[in-house]
Please model this.
Amino acid sequence: MEQVFHTIEPVFDEHSRVLILGTMPSPKSREEGFYYAHPQNRFWPVLAAVFGEKTPQGTDARKAFALKHGIALWDVLASCDIDGAADASIKNPVPNDIAWLAAKTQIESIFTTGGTAYRLYNRCCAAKTGIKAVGLPSTSAANARMSLDRLIGEYRIIFDAIVGQEDCNS
Model:
């Protein structure tokens, strides 16, 4: 078990309307310095399919994709003790200040990637943000029982949230 600190800056701008929260960046994501960087993680192919676009490759393209669609990215935890990337092993979780990020944006919807992120957000952050999260399945390769098509279907709610907000703001 190793103590890990979150070192990746949140991705957002003043136009961000949806926040997607993981638990803590994986070792590969920390190495690459960006979210969902492990080549076997299906996060970027899933989001690309949801928005009907090609999968963005590399940090700059992924960041631009997220911002273009009004998506902010961060993680629930600022630090924790963890074995590799195994969320189930997390001990001593310390949350990020999600309310700070929400106050700097137009975030109306929060989605979590995986059950641990959902539970930790509800336990540590929801009361401060006042925004209820929707828990989505993990896109990690460790969640192999969930097919790509099923993940795309589950994550379509993000597209619906963004389009719904655009319709209300028009």
In short: The radius of gyration is 15 Å. The beta strands are 2-5, 18-22, 71-75, 77-83, 86-95, 109-113, 133-136. The chain has one domain: 2-169. Residues 23 and 76 are 5 Å apart (CA to CA).
